[in-house]
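Your task:
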Amino acid sequence: MLFLLVSTLTYSQKKREMRGVWIATVANIDWPSSRDSSSSFQKQELVLLLDSLSKCGINTVIFQIRPTADALYRSDIEPWSEWLTGEQGKSPADSSFDPLQVVVEESHKRCMEVHAWINPYRVTNTPKSKLTSNHIYYKKPYLFKQYGDKIFFDPGQDETADYLLKVLKDILVRYDIDAFHLDDYFYPYPVGGKDFPDEETFKKNPNGFTNKADWRRDNVNRIVMRIQQMVKEEKPWVQFGVSPFGVWRNKAKDEKGSDTKAGVTNYDDLYADVLLWAEKGWIDYIAPQLYWEIGKTVADYAVLAPWWRANVPSTCQLYFGLYASGLEVNKPKAWKTPNELIRQMKYNQECVDIEGLLYYSTHYFLRNPQGLLDSLKTQYYAYPALPMEMKSSSEAHFPLNLRLEEDSVLRWDPVVAEGGEEASYYVVYAFPDSSDCDFDDPKNIMMKTTETAVDLKKIPGWKKSVMYNLTVTSVNRFRKESEPYEFVLYIGK
């Protein structure tokens, strides 16, 4: 519960925007801090992490649950991740511990969304010897390719796509996630000038293509399309988003491309035609990883930001991935002169209109690098924000029987729509009696809550002897907000 009354702000804030943070589990980048710690400690650490993110104004966590064809959730298909217990296939000591379920329950309590982060093709990030003996790699070795020092699924095989869909559907059916999220790893990044070893697959299964690059892109296109179809058939309110590498193509190769000189691009090297996916409606959002500074010669943030805005259709939500870790680990001068991310955020407000930001990664983000969190709390994220709503006809139902009880408790009846669907959460508004009731201004949001009662005396920042109009709306699974139905008058005491 948060109520901030700030008189003036330097920067305008949106009521609707993505405020997301990646929680990376591979190599224990963000969580858990140790594979050797107990389940109870790991759970406590996870809850504290979510608490900290919520207090920073974050409304979405992107939680990595399948880093290397393994699981940070209970699965009968893939083994427990070594990043959780220290050994792939080894169960948590506490048999009831399920990291994904903890994240879903605890995030939803805090009115935050959970986007399940999946790496589709990567199988090893450590030596092959660490794979458990019952891993699918040993059951169906023909589905895999060794490339460099790592193992990958072969995207050209139909069985690879079928297997991935099986894994994702299992997650979707059993967990109350809000989205699936794929990052930039499709076909692997080039290694030592060598080509990915799929020539034999291409010859056996060309699918009508004579050009291998086009064939590879088609392989990825088809799995992306199938994921979207599966998600919408099972749970139409669940989104499907992608966070690709920050350069689609260089202008030197394609007139439509950005004026950059990137050594790797989505289209030509990772075989991910992400613009096509956005145009076709195969993804709900796209969040390019713009991890470079303003003014970088080969990939200038000030070139790429407007390029993505100009090329992603309005039917697809556009977020930018920002490199919070770079404020501590990057060496160029721009990253050592506070604060490159704030410069980028100012640039966004002045020059491009996007629907939100994602920060990589949680570990560095919460260290408040160069005062980043201070700026967010006092300027950019001083007020709560709702996630972007989906383009859906599923309207939200308004709460009824709003009343103010004698002990200064604001209460309302829970919203239960036809079919038994409950509201995801409620938004409580407080308007000074002399002001207009502007529901688009986030400063009027007292809080977001999953409860149906608020003890007004316990709200930090509540002004005494001030008259307020109070009302409540509900938000459904499609992120749609209801109209207000009733108001009550309250005088602070």
Observations:
- Confidence is low (pLDDT under 50) at residues 1-10.
- DSSP finds 14 helices and 18 strands in the chain.
- The chain has two domains: 18-380, 403-491.
- The CA atoms of residues 101 and 174 lie 10 Å apart.
